[in-house]
Design goal:
Elements lengths: L5 H9 L40 E5 L2 E4 H14 L9 H27 L6 H12 L8 H8 L3 H24 L5 H11 L3 E3 L2 E10 L6 H18 L4 H11 L5 H4 L2 E6 L5 H7 L11 E3 L2 E11 L2 E2 L2 H31 L2 E2 L47 E2 L8
Parallel strand pairs: 3-10
Antiparallel strand pairs: 1-2, 1-9, 3-8, 4-5, 4-7, 6-7
């Protein structure tokens, strides 16, 4: 299963906010990994009242300070789209316990990854570091990025190494995971077949000539002429010809992968102008040149399927993925609970009392997935298992790209 890198969320959350100011009378303290933890809003918890350099947790001999926990809290918030500048004390205190427990899980998974020989080389870490830093907006310097994360380059590399190792670990665990029982998959469909509704869906391909909305008239005329010439070239031709011309002349950045094919999609997925045109085209019919915020489009209709109930074969893969995710989540829960029972965990200072669980147990709903403390999430970590379909009909995506 694929998972988007957390760096996208963190850069978006951090790009527009300045580094948080130090708490009055206390500068940032060195973090356990050699970095520096950014200060946070005044807290009402026992941990929040400690100096940033105070140890609060030891997991398998690795000590974590309040500074480490504050970084975990801030990055947890950033992963949910909340920049540090927006965090208020009440939110910080609410996130303290889950971030504390996730530090435990992350360290235990790191230990497991090392046992399996999955730790990345320095070269691999350097490559991943460069990929991440290339995504920074021009307004954010590398040093500024590190300051917002509450770390330095040494700590940043260590966290990248951990994330890469966890990604490899999750991939290995997924390969070891048994497939869901076919009987359970079929039974789920039989119990919910009236809820698997597939909407009316269209298939289409397009060729794009880029043109900004506010472009000068000279550019507009040039783009219109180019689009008209391309349309003339594909008019009355088959799908293969359209794909060949799209690959050669479309300015859609995804054309190398899809050759202009937009896949199959329900109403409302594409921008309004394209959506209206696509659902009005017959199979093989060519649209006039259509203008959107992206530019000028030539669209070829490839048929429309009616709404109705899905067959078992149409939704089998989706149900298998759902049941597989449930099994994988359960196996991770069992793994982390087992590791917690056998690991040496010293809770030097407990997090907010209302959220504390007994030593060796994970908080309810926490699952086994560690919250990444760095800007790259493990690539193999799975999403939460989907819940069963609710009473209203479940709209089943027809599949394919919707670009």
């Amino acid at each position: 299963m694929k998972k988007l890198s957390l760096v996208v969320l963190l850069v978006a959350a951090l790009a527009g906010c300045p580094p948080p100011p130090p708490t009055k009378g206390e500068g940032p303290a060195p973090a356990a990994d050699g970095g520096v933890a950014a200060a946070t809003p005044k807290s009402q918890t026992r941990i929040g009242a400690l100096p940033l350099s105070s140890p609060v947790l030891i997991v398998e001999g690795v000590t974590f300070t309040r500074a480490d926990l504050e970084r975990a809290i801030q990055q947890h918030a950033a992963s949910m789209g909340m920049p540090p500048s927006d965090m208020v004390p009440e939110v910080r205190d609410t996130l303290e316990a889950p971030a504390y427990e996730k530090i435990v899980d992350r360290q235990l998974f790191s230990t497991e990854a090392k046992k399996r020989g999955l730790w990345p080389s320095d070269q691999k870490v350097a490559e991943e570091r460069e990929k991440i830093l290339r995504t920074l907006p021009p307004s954010l310097t590398i040093d500024g990025f590190f300051a917002k994360l509450g770390t330095d380059d040494v700590g940043f590399r260590k966290e990248i190494a951990t994330d890469v190792a966890l990604g490899a670990l999750f991939e290995a665990l997924q390969k070891e995971q048994k497939k869901p029982d076919p009987k359970i998959v079929r039974q789920f469909f039989d119990d919910n077949k009236d809820k698997f509704v597939k909407p009316e869906a269209a298939s289409a391909s397009h060729i794009l000539v880029r043109l900004e909305r506010g472009a000068p008239q000279e550019q507009v005329e040039k783009a219109q002429q180019r689009a008209a010439e391309i349309r003339k070239e594909v008019a009355g031709k088959d799908k293969a010809t359209f794909a060949r011309v799209a690959l050669a002349k479309s300015e859609d950045p995804r054309v190398k992968d899809n050759k202009g094919d937009l896949g199959k999609f329900p109403r409302g997925v594409l921008v309004k102008e394209l959506d209206q045109a696509v659902f009005a085209l017959k199979d093989g019919e060519l649209s006039e040149v259509i203008r959107t915020d992206f530019g000028l489009h030539i669209v070829r209709g490839q048929g429309i399927s009616k709404a109705g109930l899905s067959t078992f074969d149409e939704v089998k893969a989706m149900i298998e993925e759902r049941e597989g995710a449930k099994l994988f989540a359960a196996s991770l829960d069992a793994l982390v609970l087992g590791m917690r029972k056998s690991a040496k965990i010293d809770r030097l200072v407990e997090p907010a009392p209302s959220s504390v669980m007994p030593t060796g147990k994970a908080p309810p709903g926490a699952g086994a997935l560690p919250v990444p403390l760095a800007p790259m999430a493990p690539q193999g970590s799975p999403p939460p298992a989907p819940t069963p379909p609710p009473a209203p009909p479940v709209v089943v995506p027809p599949g394919g790209a919707t670009g």
